[in-house]
Amino acid sequence: MKQTLSIQQLEEAYDAYGAAVYRLAIAFLGQRSDAEDVTQETFCRLLYRAPSFSDQNHLKRWLLKVAANLCRNQLRGFWKKRVAQLDDETLPAMIPQEQEALKAVMALPEKYKLPIHLHYYEGYSVAEIAEILNLGQSAVKMRLKRGRDLLKTELEGSH
User: Fold this and answer.
1) Taking residues 99-118, what's their average pLDDT?
2) Using only C-alpha atoms, what is the Rg of the chain?
3) What's the pLDDT score for residue 126?
4) Strand pairing partners for 51?
5) Model pTM score
6) What is the distance of C-alpha 127 from the center of its chain?
């Protein structure tokens, strides 16, 4: 059942979860402008197409799932048949080791990057990641393991 949100409820949701949606879009797309577009579209869908939410965690998972789907659609689109490179201006101010680790995560293939991001940067469990990405829990565990292995190889090779 769809519900109608007030502007105040939309603002509260954006204040609470806008940064998480944006970080997911950056992890997916690697470019600030694309991530901003996906973030905006995600909250437009919240305003116009939101289902009833049982709690705030349900709302956050719904937002991240919508954002992930929008990112996938954008990557499949005609204009995105190229690899998007991470802009240096996209990276937040952080120490060089953190920037190196974030760049390594962003360079992972999509199927490993998203579970790694959701688990380590957003704090989601394997079950929650499986729900957000429409995967089985065993697939999420395997992608986390393989993603960690790729990161370890990459980060050890750069030192």
Assistant:
1) 83
2) 16
3) 94
4) 2
5) 0.73
6) 16
Instruction: For 44-109, give the DSSP string.
Output: HHHHHH-B--SSHHHHHHHHHHHHHHHHHHHHHSGGG-SPPPPPGGGSPS--HHHHHHHHHHHHS-
Domain with 21 in it: what CATH number? 1.10.1740.10
- pLDDT over threshold 70, residue 89: no
Question: Do 77 and 4 share a structural domain?
Answer: yes
How far is 135 from 128, CA to CA, in rounded Å? 10
Alpha-carbon span 144 to 84, nearest angstrom: 22
Other CB atoms closer than 10 Å to residue 100's CB: what's the count? 15
Are 43 and 113 found together in one domain? no
Q: What does DSSP assign to residue 87?
A: P
- Same-domain pairing of 68 and 105: no
22 and 40 share one domain = yes
- Residue 147: give the domain boundaries: 94-159
